Amino acid sequence: MKWICIPGLVLFHSALLKAQCPPNINFSTGDLSHWTASTGSFVFSPPYQIVYPANINAPTGTTGAVTIDEFNHAVPAVTVNTANSFDRFGSFETIPTLNGYNYQYSVTLGSTLVSNGGGGNSGYVRKIEYSIDVPPGLPTDPYIITYAYAMVLENGSHTTSSQPIFNATVMSPTGKIACASATYNLPTTFTGIVNNNGGRLDSIYEVDQTIAAQQGFTLSNVPSPNNNNRPNESLIRVWTKGWTEVMFNLAQYRGQTVTITYEADNCLPGGHFAYAYIAFRNDCGGPKITGPSPGCVNTPSTYSIPTLGNGTYTWTVPNGWQITSGANTNIITVKPGNTGGQISVTADNGCTKLDALLNVTLLPPTLPGNVLADVSVCTGNNSTTLNLKNNQGSVIKWIASTNNGSGWTDIGNANNNTYNAINLTTTTQYKAIVQNGQACSADTSTAAVIKVYEKSIGGQVLPADKAICLGQNQNTELSLTGNAGDVINWQWSDNGSLWNSYNPAVVSPTLNTTIQTVGSRYYRAIVKVGVCPADTSSAAKVTLVNANFPKAFITPKDTLICYGGTASLTTTIQTGTSYQWGNVDALVDPNNNKVPSLPHTFTASASPLFTTNYPISILNNGCPNAWTDTFNVEVRPPINPFAGNDTFIVVGQPLQLNVQSNISSGLGYLWTPSTGLSNTSIQNPIALLNAAIDEIIYQVKVTDLVSGCSENSSIKVRVFKTGPDVFVPNAFTPNNDNVNDFFRPIPVGISKINYFKVYNRYGQLVYSSDGSENSGWDGTLKGREQPGGVYAWVVSATTYTGAPVKKKGTVALIR
Question: What CA–CA distance (Å, rounded) separates 305 from 275?
Fold first, then answer.
């Protein structure tokens, strides 16, 4: 046997070994194999130290171990996570995807258990360790350990150093590697002193929220599960920090053993918890730039490398590209130009310097194209092939909308340029979502609309069995009902089997039958919805009866009468043997429904009080159908004019007349006599009477200009020769006989009664009026009749010239 040495293969294998990660560094076995796990507590008394009574050492102690409990408690302190979930406080995933790398496993280090509630005297601590045998090789060949972490820390209102904490420590044979190690905790500032727990004074440190936010911390809205019996402490005190990725280089320790330790500690007093998640990449070669390749022309993209502790970053991008954000960080956002090229980054933290390159090609932007085939189909069994044209990029999915584009739903398993839409029952729009590579933005095509028509339903023709008479010119129509779709034509048949279509087509839902010979004929409608097949209605039978249809005419068909008036309704019967009124309210017909001879003319009288219809039907022996027509009698509403109550004035006092009526407009007026009136043809003339007149009655005729109807009203005006005054009776008899039942002042030449008051003999006010109403006193007080006797009164008024009038006196109440 001969051995053949292939130098290139040896070099490749050697390089592979130099970059190979330690076994189970990423928990890929689903347990803690090769790791050491420890749990313990902080002794909160001199010499103030952490003790780890529970140590589970690698390799044998942790082989197959998935969970390690808290010190002295059956509560998981270290747990290997093989299935993703979400943290209860931070809502982030428990197994991350970061910078383009999909982690498969993680470890939860710590819990929400605190010693205040668990019987201990100090804060719980937990840690895991791994001793890495760094492969031999050149110190210039990177050996990268990349881990990601997320934290949940409960604020204890302590100094920063006493707060819950998460540590990452890297130890070489010569000591701690500072640039690879890190401490993560909440930054706090001193805010004051409070009195807690029976007089104990505690210093209070609050989270510096500005610095905390800069470090990526967020206050959770989920309350802490731990009540520490501090009345001034809010349960909303749990802070979270989502996943962050960190790398460190062990190249200078090739051939040596380096120990990495991750530790989550509760606060030193023990009453506030800490836990963290840790995940590792299973790739220990040089750093890699992650980001889209190919990219997209003129489309912003993000490129990154894991964080190098305390590192600085120098990026270069191809000509024509712009770094729009993050130029000095491990994550940049760029706007590419029109051509691809090489992206490079140098990360340097003083301990190590790392370089990474990524060649990026560019794709043109997405063109979504348009979906062809706006079509119409019939509901149910249908099939339409939609084609996407003029697109640039691949179809991610198709989407559909059944509500005119207001909402869209994804169509599963559809990512080709064609889509077959089948068995639709409602009108649907379709679009395709297109993306030209991951870096280019997805875009939506124009929509195609598949209009879905409901199936045609012929319906029923009514009446289904109809008789008509010779010469019938009324009620010859057939009507289609219960149909779905439009009438495209009617058909007729003399035997119900051989059908003839109308030409030209009749598309109305009603048909005026055209049978002209004695016998029967059948009619039906053809109905169609969109592209759906046409359907036929039920058939109606029409029979021509060998008898003449009645014939008559009426006059006037429409009549306008005044309220309380009478309309004359005249009918002339040319063919017919009897007639009948459909409404006899307020109707007088001296003819008594008789037809003595033909032609026969008769007149009925109608006196309705409101607009009324009077249908009349004429019958002829042998014909089952009646000739019908209707008289319409429109009654104008009553005018009901009111010129006002009789009144009194003094000589020279202007009197404003005003007639009110039931109709508000379209009226004419005529006042008589014209004596003293400013105008006789308006609603509200002014009367001015001299001393020659003692009394005058004005009559006003109010005419409805629409109908010519008119009604009258009058008002009596008595003229006093005295000056303006208020006259008051000296007795009244309130016995409900409608004669002198009320005690009231009588104003003459008065424009306003200011008040009118009545008092009994004890000075008690029994009646008062401000003049707005002048009904007078009815002899009662609060509903109770007052005794007969003498009562005092006082009245104050103002004349039409503005002069005051005030009078007082007595009145006798007689029972």
Answer: 26
